[in-house]
Amino acid sequence: MKKVLLTISLVALTVMTAVAQDVTGKWKTVDDETGEAKSIVEIYKENGKIYGKVVEILNPAKKNATCDECPGADKGKPILGIVIIKGLEKDGDEYNDGTIMDPNNGKVYKCYIELDGANKLDVRGYIGFSLLGRTQTWTRVN
């Protein structure tokens, strides 16, 4: 009986940990150079891939900003609502093989994201090799 209870407890703990360690949800973005909180990005799954869109802009002066330098169909659109993370796929503990766009300058970078605990997300944009890039740490919004 004790073995059965122990097994059930371990399975339940594993399931709860897996659910708690999900990248989906809302995240506060912070500029890695200035430390300023910039926006809230909602990360979601669609067709088995991970995407992220801007759902709130924290600086009142930039709430109506448009993505004037963005490529393609995003050019000239409001930053609020724009999808900046596209097509990430789960690979072990990280999600990669997708892109992230900086809506301030329209540049698109390769991207990977990885949880650092339950409430921190390391987001890395890079060109070519992941060594040639920069990382921001976003915090989960409840």
What's a quick, concise take on this entry?
By secondary structure, this protein is mostly beta strands. It is built from one helix and eight strands, in the order αββββββββ.
Question: What report would you give on this structure?
Answer:
This protein has 142 residues and is mainly beta. It has a single domain (23-141), classed as Beta Barrel (Lipocalin), CATH 2.40.128.520. Helix content is 13%, strand content 48%. The chain has an eight-stranded antiparallel beta barrel with strand order 1-2-3-4-5-6-7-8. The chain is globular and about 40 Å long. The protein starts with a helix and ends with a strand. The model is unreliable at 4-20 (pLDDT under 50).
Class from helix and strand fractions: mainly beta
SSE run: HEEEEEEEE
Largest sheet: 8 strands, antiparallel, barrel
CATH architecture: Beta Barrel
Strand order of the largest sheet: 1-2-3-4-5-6-7-8
Distance between the termini: 39 Å
As a whole number of angstroms, the C-alpha radius of gyration is 17 Å
